[in-house]
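Technical note accompanying the year-one report. For the benefit of new consortium partners, we illustrate the data format agreed upon in the data management plan: each record pairs a sequence with a structure-token string. No post-processing was applied to the example shown here.
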Amino acid sequence: MSFYGWITIAAFLLCVIAMTRPLGGFLKRVLEGEKHILGLALGPVERGIYRIAGIRADKEQSWSQYALAVIAFKIVCFVAVYALLRLQGYLPFNPGGMQAVAPDLAYNTAISFLTNTNWQSYGGETTMSYLSQMLALTVQNFVSAAAGIAIAAAVIRGFARRGAAAIGNFWADLVRTTLYILLPICVVLTLFFVLEGVPQTLLGSITASTLEGAHQTIALGPVASQEAIKLLGTNGGGFFNVNSAHPFENPNALTNFVQMLAIFALGAGLTNMFGRMVGRERQGWAIFSAMAVLFLIGAGVAYWSEAHANPLIEALGVDPSAGNMEGKETRFGIVGSALFATVTTDASCGAVNAMHESFLPLGGMVPLVNMMLGEIIFGGVGSGLYGFLLFAIIAVFMAGLMVGRTPEYLGKKIEAREIKMTMLAVLCLPLVMLGFTALAVVVPEGLSALSASGPHGFTEALYAYTSAAANNGSAFSGLTANTFWNVTLGIGMMIGRFFVIIPILAIAGAMAAKKTAAPTPGTFPTDNGLFIALVTGVILIVGGLTFLPALALGPIVEHLAMLRGTLF
């Protein structure tokens, strides 16, 4: 560990804090249909889209209508992506001559990108044509991220409105988010990446001669544009197989820092949007503070772990101050890799600039725990905020039980229906993560895909299903996905997305219909340090009670075995 490393983490958090309020204000203006800086230039485009699509932006939907619109849109996306991947061998912009994607892989990839998971059971430069990368995958990066922000806006309206039957219009939210938020920022990010050396071309691969006289094929393509939305939309799907560890995706330390900021930008901004929309900005900062505390804990543990060398490597005479550089790029170093791993799994991004499987056991446990908690630490665009609100409901429910009062949040009573929907959304994730892991480590089809045995092999399986259910998409690189894994991971992705979306929209609908009660001396405040401590404790306790046995079988026992000289 070094002073420079801790300064890097602190500087990153300060930059996130500086972005939060301006982005929150802009997000609110866009999603509430208020005047904003881009409205004059892009307003005619928005209205044109409504006319062509037959959308009435002023006609709002109930929570069930909103949910049905989301599901219908996702079904169309699945069919379109699956068809494009299966037919890519016959379609243009395919200079590498890529053939049709196998049915199980096309199914897995289509679900992966429409759920904003971006799990990749393939190498991008060796499997996907340029058209598939652009029209299938990059388009889904935009609309899946936009759908997440739209759902978050609908949920916030549910908490902000009083006696209302509607929570917004999904189609209008989707268009506004894509047109005014994602596209403009991605144009700027794309130009920045191109300036830093990231390719953006439709030309085919080039052949280079090495110093030894051999020939090497170097893949190119429209990388910068996909890179921008992959990060801003917390998608994570890389153009190349090694993702942001590839120098064409992430050339230097500056792009690495900007990529991490892009991952957190909108998730942090949505906390401020929440405070503005409910009329109390302090509420948003309370949520931000709880997320920041959890982020610092994870980043600190990951950096501390990776700054130490493997004891067995130290025994060979290697300088322990060099830390664990296995699986990391020298241009990012220990802190740049540990911080990136923490950020990308705090958010449901899944982009990686180092191989998580090569982290030491406790360092690799940090990304795993981040995902197990539901990736609510700033989180994916939209999903992080509404996932956090589920834990906020549990926290105020527990506070109500302790003082003998009906729990309230933002002046609205939390009743049986809201608690049932909350528990359904919270419990579906460990059911998928632990249930499918248990299946995979006992059936031959599951075991055959693992590259390691013992606790490390168990962690490979646990990480994969945790990543799928949490809609993250990162993986331990030793896993070789086969048909069994592609099918079960696809199921896990769908459950992890839709079994959370539907209950949280139901909660939003119920909350929107309620009246707001005036605060009394017995009202539990939800914008101060006590609430921050309570909700942080609830998140850690719920996660600890649920996942500690599985962690004990994986990274914890692997760490103890490593100290005794055993590797897996």
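Partners are asked to follow this layout when depositing records. The mean pLDDT is 92.
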